[in-house]
Design a protein that fits this description.
- There is one protein chain.
- This protein is an alpha/beta fold and about 350 residues long.
- It is about 35% helix and about 15% strand.
- It has helices at about 10-20, 20-30, 45-50, 70-75, 95-100, 110-130, 135-145, 170-180, 195-200, 210-215, 235, 255-265, 305-320, and strands spanning about 5-10, 30-35, 55-60, 80, 105-110, 160-165, 185-190, 205, 215-220, 245-250, 270-275, 295.
- The strands form two sheets. It has a seven-stranded parallel sheet, sandwiched between helices. A five-stranded parallel sheet has the order 2-1-3-4-5, with helices on one face.
- Helix 2 runs parallel beside helix 13 and helix 6 runs antiparallel to helix 13.
Length: about 350
């Protein structure tokens, strides 16, 4: 029996980033792999010209969207395994409705692998911000102060806290898992979270304002979709208690930055942003200079552990699909509009 023909679109640089050598070797052994020799990515026209030869496709960061012509020619294609996070740019809603769903097409994403890194960053930020490590370190290094009088010597840190979570997304659920040893009470606002899932996760479903009213710390994991634009603004931020920690690792557009600036300027909340709007923030943006705001340059998804899991997810999706087994990471095409 011949091996399934797979076209690998990402460049060698992408391969080195997300595939452990043994994982990529298994990909080569288990499939008739036609790999991009690099260093440049394929153009949309190049994809159109060759896509008809293959049963499976591996895409990644920088892969062009699949055009209507590419899908028309892809008569043998049955699966796209995305060696990255969001697949939203690959297809339009019309393509999903008119072509992918009727063809029982499989689209798989490795976003769960990236979620591992983002969740680690989130938990680290919860600890660092609540304990004000950055301020303590800055005072010691720059001011020579061992204990700054304006910084509390104790407080509500992560253990025993009430944590508010906006969206129990893939990242959010990994954060919930990592927080199990910390004895936290978790409040979640997510209209797509069922009561059964909330019970299984051990969280309490509440409305958005209640998350901000009750929580000691709030983390945001909502997708970037029209419904979440400026989901969080002045009414929610004003509800945060003094000393509360607010963390956004989702997308900058979910947060009204002018409202955040107004609230952060009071100095009463602690903010960690790994994403901003725009990104990067302009050099003269006042959020950059507030001592109670810590900004990282969209690095929460980075990390060798999660990156190499991307390669594993990508390969396992292909293996499972061609062995007629359930595909972990398969995208529910009927919920395409809700995808980040």
């Amino acid at each position: 029996m011949s091996l399934p023909a797979i076209w690998y679109l990402p460049t060698p640089a992408h391969t080195q980033r997300v595939f452990a050598p043994a994982t990529y070797q298994r990909l080569q052994q288990n499939f008739a792999l036609s790999a991009n020799p690099g260093p440049e990515g394929y153009t949309a026209q190049q994809v159109e010209e060759r896509i008809g030869e293959f049963e499976g496709l591996v895409s990644g960061w920088g892969t062009p969207p699949l055009s209507a012509e590419a899908l028309r020619r892809a008569t043998r294609l049955r699966i796209v395994s995305h060696a990255a996070g969001s697949v939203k740019h690959l297809f339009t809603q019309e393509q999903v409705d008119s072509q992918l769903i009727p063809r029982h097409f499989c689209v798989a994403s490795a976003n769960a692998a990236i979620a591992l890194n983002v969740a680690e960053h989130t938990v680290g930020a919860l600890i660092a911000m609540s304990r004000q490590w950055f301020e303590h370190a800055r005072n010691i290094r720059e001011k020579g102060l061992w204990h700054a009088p304006d910084l509390p010597r104790s407080g509500q840190y992560l253990r025993g806290a009430v944590l508010g979570m906006v969206s129990a997304s893939t990242v959010g659920r990994e954060v919930i898992r990592l927080l199990q040893p910390f004895d936290v009470q978790i409040l979640v606002c997510d209209p797509f979270l069922s009561d059964w899932d909330a019970g299984r996760l051990g969280v309490q479903q509440v409305e958005l304002d209640e998350v901000f009213r009750r929580a000691d710390m709030v983390t945001v994991h909502a997708p970037k979709i029209p419904q979440t634009f400026h989901l969080i603004g002045a009414p929610q931020l004003r509800l945060l208690r003094d000393g509360a920690v607010f963390i956004n690792t989702s997308r900058g557009s979910v947060l009204d930055h002018q409202a955040l600036l107004a609230e952060a300027r009071t100095g009463r909340i602690l903010v960690q942003l790994d994403v901003t709007d725009p990104e990067p923030l302009p050099a003269d943006h006042p959020l950059r200079n507030l001592s109670n705001v810590v900004i990282t340059p969209h690095t929460s998804g980075a990390g060798q552990y999660g990156y190499h899991r991307i390669g594993e997810f990508t390969l396992c999706a292909l293996e499972s699909f061609f062995q007629n087994r359930p595909v972990i990471g398969q995208v529910d095409l009927k919920r395409w509009a809700q995808l980040a």
